[in-house]
Amino acid sequence: MNSSIENPNTDLAYQKAILGSVSRTFALTIPLLPPPIEIVVGNTYLLCRIADTIEDATALSPIEKQDLSKLFLDVVLGAIPAASFVTPCLNALQGHSNIDELDLIAHTPTVLRILHTFPSRDQAAISRCVSIMSEGMSHFHNRQTQEGLKDLAEFEEYCYVVAGVVGELLTTIFGYYSPEFAEHIGGHEKLAIEFGQALQMTNILKDSPEDYARGVSWSPAQMSQAELLKIAYEKLQGSLSYILLIPKNEIGMRRFCLLAFGLAVMTLEKIAANKEFNKKAQMKLSRNTVWIFYGFTKLAASNDFLMKSFFYAASGRLRKLTTISR
């Protein structure tokens, strides 16, 4: 693809296409949002995915990751031209196996062109999110060890900088779109952080075998899987409260959150039932399961009772599984 094309429709078509290539889950959830929010959230996801690709690159040293993360942030903030990041990043990732992620990095100018079409308040919120994420990841690059993070507080801090901050961004964008939601969420902003952290904790548990194999653990040292599952479920309880604050008439916003939430709930339940798994692919939900739940969101998005029933039934099963596994 030619990243020099500057047609707005072509740029948006690229954003939609690459989103489907780099994330199966978000390619399902983001299109559920109302169109003005869908474009903003999709663009933000791609920016975060670039930052995440740098963090996950096993061939790079912590110093190389820090240097590239700084260049990327400078590009997003407009301090340097995109080529000053794209060229050294692609050079550093020559052996990277995910060609879709490399294509996304090559199209950083495209992603930024879309960003610059948004209202200034959206751009400011996205820049804040990417700044906290990039700087936070750089902070944790030197903490990649097989022993894990120091304690629960550091674990929660890591989950905040890579995902909790995204929950804050969503809340800001949702609030601009829906004044009623902005009113509901007032005083409950911490639920947005818990929503993002819960999804990240689920990913950490699911990815733990591969992370451990490459000499990394993002879990707190000396904490068992059962304890982490309990913490993740507590965060998911806050996530449910967050979703219930979204006005019932905002079906797209509710379905977007409910789908991501539900897939995390079912993944944690699967992890609890298969505590000896050694590959994250074993914890991947089947395509059939995902589509069944996708259909369920159509019914449950406007029905608080159905949402609560789904979560509390899963919570009961998880408590039983974690009790048995200890």
Please give a structural write-up.
- There is one protein chain.
- The protein is mainly alpha-helical.
- The protein is 74% helix and 0% strand.
- It is built from 15 helices and no strands.
- Helix 9 runs antiparallel to helix 10.
- The chain is globular, with a radius of gyration of 19 Å.
- The protein starts with 7 loop residues before the first helix and ends with a helix.
- Residues 1-5 have low confidence and may be disordered.
Round the mean pLDDT to the nearest integer and report it: 91
Question: What is the tally of helical segments?
Answer: 15
Strand content: under 5%
Please give the radius of gyration in angstroms. Answer: 19 Å
Helix percent band? over 70%
| Overall geometry | globular
Structural class: mainly alpha
Largest sheet: none
Number of strand segments:
0
Which sequence of SSEs, written as H and E, runs from N to C?
Answer: HHHHHHHHHHHHHHH
Weakly predicted, low-confidence segments: 1-5
In a few lines, what is going on in this structure?
The protein is built from 15 helices and no strands.
